[in-house]
Amino acid sequence: MITLGVDPGTQVTGYGLVTGDPRKQKLIGFGAIRATAKAPLADRLAQIFEGIRQVIESAKPDHLALEEAFFAKNAQNALKLGMVRGVIILAARRAGVEVHEYSPLLIKQTVTGYGRAEKEQVREMVRRLLSMKDAPEPLDASDALATAITHIVHHGSAIRGAGTAR
Q1: Is residue 15 a contact partner of residue 148, using CB atoms and an 8 Å limit?
Q2: d(Cα 33, Cα 10) in Å, to the nearest integer?
Q3: How many separate helices (H) and strands (E) can be counted in the chain?
Q4: CA dihedral sign, ordered 72, 73, 77, 83
Q5: What residues are labeled active site?
Q6: How far apart, in whole angstroms, are the C-alpha atoms of residue 102 and residue 122?
Q7: Which of 75, 111, 139, 157 fits as disulfide partner to 146, beta carbons 3.0 to 4.6 Å?
Q8: pLDDT in tens, the chain (166 residues)
Q9: What does the pLDDT read at residue 166?
Q10: CB of 99 within 8 A of CB of 92?
């Protein structure tokens, strides 16, 4: 099972590809889609959609794991982030990839053991869990890898608990 984790952003969208089972995960790859900062939102959304579409096309993931929407202090930013999440979900579903969403609290808890961990703590634990020599950059990519790990841990446990094999 290959999981594509995505950390959505209006300028930088991180992604990470991970395989494995709930006990041990293996890194396939990671990166970031950088939308043109001063471009109109519609153009940035198109860049993000195309970037995710290309990652899906080349990696052929079974699942896409995405951080759930959270309440932002700025309503305008929350709306824009919702649009980014929408194009990511659309790219996945058009390719036939299952989409799963996880809360930021659960992602941090799964990877670090503490639901209020800082981004740097998440990045370091991702590095350790995936036996990486260097910490993944940018932080958006490490967040995406953490989301993929969370999916493998929780989805894999649910499959094992239900007695079904994949």
Answers
A1: no
A2: 10
A3: 5, 5
A4: positive
A5: 7, 67, 140
A6: 15
A7: 111
A8: 999 999 999 999 999 999 999 999 999 999 999 999 999 999 999 999 999 999 999 999 999 999 987 766 788 888 999 999 999 999 999 999 999 999 999 999 999 999 999 999 999 999 999 999 999 999 999 999 999 999 999 996 665 554 444 3
A9: 37
A10: yes
Residue ranges of E strands in 68-139: 98-102
Q: What is the CATH number of the domain that holds 109?
A: 3.30.420.10
The domain in which residue 126 lies consists of: 2-162
> How many structural domains comprise the chain?
1
Structural tokens at position 29:
């790859």
- What pLDDT was estimated at residue 160? 52
- Which helix (H) or strand (E) element contains residue 163? none
Q: How far apart are CA 76 and CA 112, in angstroms?
A: 31
Instruction: Give CA–CA dist 60/62, Å, rounded.
Output: 7
Strand 12-21: give its sheet, edge to edge: 24-34, 12-21, 2-7, 63-67, 98-102
DSSP state of 138: S
